[in-house]
Amino acid sequence: MRLQHVYATCSNNESLLIGVKMKIPHPIPYQGSKRWLAATICELIPPNTNRLFEPFAGSAAVTLAAAARGSAERFVLNDVHAPLMELWRAISERPAELADQYERLWNDQRGREQLFFNEVRAEFNKSHDPAYFLYLLARCVKAAIRYNTKGEFNNSPDNRRLGANPATMRRNILEAARLLRDKTQIRCGDYLESLKDAREEDVIFMDPPYQGVSKERDARYVRGLAFDDFCEGLKQLAHRKLSFIISYDGRTGDREHGKLLPASLGLERIEVLAGRSTQETLLGRRSETYESIYLSSSLLARLDSTPRTAFENAVNRGQLSLFEGVH
Ligand SMILES: C[S@@+](CC[C@H](N)C(=O)[O-])C[C@H]1O[C@@H](n2cnc3c(N)ncnc32)[C@H](O)[C@@H]1O
User: Fold this and answer.
1) What range does the domain containing 111 cover?
2) Model pLDDT, residue 217
3) Is residue 54 part of a domain?
4) Is the pLDDT of residue 318 over 60?
5) What is the pLDDT of residues 235-291, one digit of tens each?
6) For residue 8, pLDDT beyond 70
7) Whose CA is closest to 243, among 197, 201, 190, 294?
8) What is the CATH number for 152?
9) pLDDT tens-digit series, residues 42-65
10) Which of 81, 103, 176, 285 sits at 20 to 30 Å (Cα–Cα) from 164?
11) In a domain? residue 2
């Protein structure tokens, strides 16, 4: 893991070490990654957590941050998207080989980048080879996974970028592999299926597709998730007394994105400041965007019995707003 030391200069001009920032590796470029939220989520994982489950893994931003901090003993990564989980398998099981393959593709593209992207995309659509997928994600517009109705990856290259430099990509792949080695299970399937063996001493972090993209024909994600089905799944998880954290929609200003999860689930809702909406700024309005985070009652009971210094500090600094009771 790369550590970045943060210094402040004192009045006598001496430098004082005030903290050590962890550089978390991110080998998979991914639209909708929760990198920005990962440190906050880690604060909500109680000590002595056995396994951290991430059943909507995507680029696994929270698992990587939790592994770097030692927030759980072991990890379970799952996503319904098979090529993505094959890519995670390649990162964990043969990182040096994957980094070599990426480097070869990256070098071979030089001078005919657009044509080369199209050739790799056609090959990926035949073989689902993980190295091709990684190259496509590194080069495509907004790192967005898009498929057509025939199930073919159809996003276009971003011609302003060549994709991560091979040395940077190698560092990210090797470091992620080191963090996950010997303590991570990789699964592929529906989120509820992947949680069948979750127990009370584990924690589950869920980041399902936003309600807005969960229509039946969903071009952004391989599969959306209907609101009512998700609520039914959560009811089962709460009944099993599992500790879970959900990141689900939010609001910009006073405009809610999607419906709130129902009070009958007994969840606590927190809002986390995500930043200023660029769209709203373009329209001449200043609106902050907040992400809704829901905590299960079993998780809250575990957190209540442990000191929550960093989390409480974040609340006090106004980075988190805590709601009284259930929204
Ligand atoms: C918002 S993204 C997760 C992003 C992730 N938190 C990150 O940091 O990159 C949602 C993910 O859920 C997956 N997904 C959609 N429906 C699913 C289901 N029923 N079961 C498991 N995964 C699903 C999608 O393939 C997508 O990767």
Assistant:
1) 25-322
2) 46
3) yes
4) no
5) 999 999 999 999 998 788 877 788 899 999 999 998 888 877 666 667 776 678 888
6) no
7) 201
8) 3.40.50.150
9) 999 999 999 999 999 999 999 999
10) 81
11) no
Q: Is 239 exposed, middle or buried (0-12, 13-18, 19+ CB in 10 A)?
A: exposed
Only one residue has tokens 């430099």, namely 165
Q: pTM of the entire structure? A: 0.87
pLDDT digits (tens, 9 = 90+) for 11-51: 444 554 444 567 899 999 999 899 999 999 999 999 999 99
Place of tokens 């974040």: 314
Instruction: Evaluate: CB of 32 within 6 angstroms of ligand 1.
Output: yes
Q: Is the C-beta atom of 187 inside 6 A of ligand 1?
A: no
Cβ contacts of residue 217 below 8 Å, gap of 6+? 149
Check pocket membership of 88 for ligand 1, CB cut-off 6 A. Answer: no
| 57-86: b (≥16 Cβ within 10 Å) or e | bbbbbbbbbbbbbebbebbbbbbbbebbbb
Q: Is residue 254 part of a domain?
A: yes
Atom of ligand 1 nearest to the CA of 208: 10
> Residue 242: exposed, middle, or buried by beta-carbon count in 10 A (0-12, 13-18, 19+)?
buried
Total domains present in the chain = 1
* Centre of ligand 1 from the C-alpha of residue 66, in Å: 18
In angstroms, the CA 49 to CA 256 distance is 33
Whether 5 is in a domain gets the answer no
